[in-house]
Amino acid sequence: MSSVRSNLNVVILAAGKGTRMHSDLPKVLHQVAGRALLSHVITCAEKLEPENIVAVYGFGGRKVPEAIARDDILWAEQAEQLGTGHAVQQAMPLLGDKGITLVLLGDVPLLRAETCRMLIRNAEQHLALLTVEKDIPTGYGRIVRSFDGRVQAIVEEKDADAEQRRIKEVNSGIMAMPTVLLKQWLGRLRNENNQKEYYLTDVIAMAVEDGVGVVTERAQDEWEVIGVNSKADLAGVERIYQKNEAQRLMHAGVTLRDPERIDVRGRLKTGRDVEIDIGCVFEGNVELGDKVSIGPYCVIKDATIAEGSVIAPYTHIDEATVGRDSRIGPYARLRPGTELVAEAHIGNFVEIKNSRVDHGSKINHLSYVGDSQVGKHVNIGAGTITCNYDGANKHRTIIGDHAFIGSDTQLVAPVTVEAGATIGAGSTITRDAPENSLTLSRSKQITIQGWKRPVKTKK
Ligand code: UD1
Ligand code: CA
Q: Which residues line ligand 1 (CB under 6 A)?
């Protein structure tokens, strides 16, 4: 197998504007599952372990290479978009004459490496073409076969006659062939067609002319070769991607309340008996331990949630670690740098940022804890705020084990509340609070006897 791969080039076409997207962003940078279309195709190409990957860019100039930010692949510029054949031509000077070249399209993001492998196997001596049967073939190049079933040519929709338009076998745009033959054929392309473009698809007729066999493979699933040309296509491809991801999760044992209502934009790793309710979005790298339960409408990004933890509805977690058996939310927000060690209780409208909260501590209502270190079994009352920012710099708040912070307290950092300290409700704490004592900073409650409410003066 490795002998094939070491002679394999992959050329990815990504220079087109994507007129039908009606967007300033080059088409291949539009996203599926939070990643550019082109990134999906590059990932597929990499799985084949080719000698070279060349991406052809053009519309939007350096925008595409800059956004993809990969200098471990080769980039070829197609300054003017004169067609798919012309695009492949731009890549050829970067490649030798040996081996096989596989052409992939930057706007076909769901293609599987398995399917490419099938194609490559037939491309040592032949032109191997990936086709698919479509009930509605509109927009795709049609595969024209002779009476005995041999491929004769590909006819683009815009050049096809009425009879050809009825053909349901279409070109996926993906093909592989000996590099040396591809180079020859590219040199013979003409742009005498409706779009005045150099069509890559014209090499099929050339192969037939030269007596080189054209072998076709059918994609197993139609969705694998869907090309994104419009925002509707993009949304369609996104849904298919998400359905596949939902299937993968359920196969791994995850309970999804509704597989139609989950979005994974990255990598989601799951333990045993994980449950995910509807409307959740997972971004980046997320890891859910055994028996983790995620309530409806949570947004979770680059986070680890350890076993037994329950995330209640509408919770947002971003670059945070939640230790085992914690209860978070509803309506909690864990921001970057939050580390909850274990058995934490974080309740509604609590925001935590860049803070470590040790074992068994509770912050249950309406609080902001930032740049802090909270010890074990601390209770932070409702409405507590760490005032970490003085307008210029951020400062830390340290709260010792078993401390009790009364409701509506402001802890003006830098400040330390020592172990076992109690802070009276409604305090503004600007100096350290000593251990095992009650510290408070509010004025004493008084009652004015005989006081009357003001009454409205008559005019
Ligand atoms: C192409 C095929 C068609 C096939 C369909 C499958 C040709 C002539 N037609 O049509 O047979 O059914 O794909 O999706 O090949 N690109 C460039 N430079 C260019 C033109 C295009 O890099 O000058 C890139 C685009 O960025 C895109 C890909 O090539 O990623 C396909 O181009 P597109 O214009 O979408 O071709 P289709 O009309 O879809
Ligand atoms: Ca296309």
A: 13-16, 27-28, 56, 58, 78, 81-84, 86-87, 105-108, 140-141, 154, 156, 170-173, 199-201, 227, 229
